[in-house]
Amino acid sequence: MSKLMTTHVFTSESVSEGHPDKVCDQISDAILDACLKADPNSHVGCETLAATDLVVNAGEITCDGWDTINPEAIAREVVKDIGYVQEDIGFSYKTFQYFNRLHGQSPDIAMGVNEGMGLFTEQGAGDQGMMFGYAANETPELMPAPIQYSHQLLLELSRIRKAGIIPYLRPDSKSQVSVKYENGKPACITAVVISHQTEDVSLEIIREDLVKVAKEVLEPTGLLTEATEYYINPTGRFVVGGPHGDSGLTGRKIIVDTYGGVGCHGGGAFSGKDPTKVDRSAAYYSRYVAKNIVAAGLAAKCEIQVAYAIGVAKPMSVNVSTFGTGVVNDCLLQQIVESSGLFDFRPAGIIKALSLNKPSGWCYRDTASYGHFGRDKFPWEKTDRVEELKRAVAEKA
Question: CA nearest 265: which of 59, 18, 4, 12?
Fold first, then answer.
């Protein structure tokens, strides 16, 4: 008896660097970058609020050299670089009011995070909780197709906007890509949605231009068909946008930041947090492990879960799931991940392995728009454990 074909459609969303929440993420991460440049051992928990001509920073920062850092100047430079330069659209780098409510880190938290303090001699996790990393072989980047293609659309539109190729584009935008799967593999793109802030120009022109861009970006996937539907500014008008159209906050786009709704999420946001905070660093490391497992051909899909207690270096648990796609039992993969010596999930080990407190060739602000995963410039995207994983599996299988 032949198997019935299984089909489903899955949709993921991306938002641009000019989206209000992403403006905030980038400001928070730009301040983090400045702190780590001044002091690689900085402890940073920086939140940002943006609204009509308003930016507020709040949170906890301990940094040797903080007196040399000007967070207001950083915020204005980020907003300018994004493209909010006009003074008549309700939010501009020249005109926004700025308030700073940043202060030092709580000594109770520092006791658990700083090496040699508190009950343990090792550097402990900066918080409790669980983090997830995911990889799948459905795109060259080993990312889920819907979120990867949504990011690619907005990256290209950002390039076009900044180059002045489509002069009426403004910074705020969103995209969605819906992918039909057959037997677990991408078969076609059923729908593309782009909502892009513009100057007050004809909707007909906007739709013609942006459909053309969408097709140019997505044609190489081989997934577009004659039946693919395009929805461009479906409300009919998107002129008022950015923090003037809707307020923004750091950490509100955690699904956009990760895998577009595929797999699990522990709930912790990334931006504005230094790497002692495992919400961020352990999620990056879990992606690193999952990606190496898939790149090694040991599974078509892999998800890593890791859990911590605040102040404790050793994880409470590490779990490996390949959703039935593994070439060996998940228990064997879990043993290799935990016990082979290839991976070290202790916070200090993660920071060292990925050089998270001394970024080179990238910065944290780079991560804060268009996804934290799926771009080669980041160290957690390396697949440098593939051969060792293959050998470890061969020895134990």
Answer: 12
Flag whether the pTM goes above 0.85: yes
Beta bridge partners of 133: 304
Q: Is the pLDDT of residue 178 over 60?
A: yes
19 pLDDT above the threshold of 50: yes
Sheet holding 97-103, edge to edge: 97-103, 54-62, 43-51, 248-249
Give the pLDDT confidence of 194-219 residue by residue, as tens digits. Answer: 999 999 999 999 999 999 999 999 99
pLDDT value at position 232?
A: 98
From residue 172, give the alpha-carbon distance in Å to each of 84, 183, 246, 369: 10, 36, 10, 12
Question: What would the pLDDT profile of 223-257 be if each residue is shown by its tens digit?
Answer: 999 999 999 999 999 999 999 999 999 999 999 99
Angular region, 8: left φ>0, alpha ψ -120 to 50, beta rest = beta
Chain length of the chain: 397
Check if the beta carbon of residue 33 is closer than 8 Å to that of residue 225. Answer: no
CB under 8 A, 24+ apart: contacts of 351-355: 351/275, 351/276, 351/281, 353/285, 353/288, 354/275, 354/281, 354/284, 354/285, 354/288, 354/379, 354/380, 355/379
Residue 61 DSSP code: E
Each residue of 65-90: pLDDT tens digit? 999 999 999 999 999 999 999 988 89
Gap between the Cα atoms of 249 and 354, Å rounded: 27
User: Between 330-339 and 386-396, two packed helices, what is the crossing angle to 10 degrees?
Assistant: 120
376: DSSP letter? T
Q: Could you say which DSSP state residue 344 is in?
A: -
**Which burial class, exposed, middle or buried, applies to 323 when counting CB atoms under 10 A from its CB (0-12, 13-18, 19+)?**
middle
Confidence of residue 106 (pLDDT cuts 50, 70, 90): low
What the block records as the tokens of 338 is: 């935990």
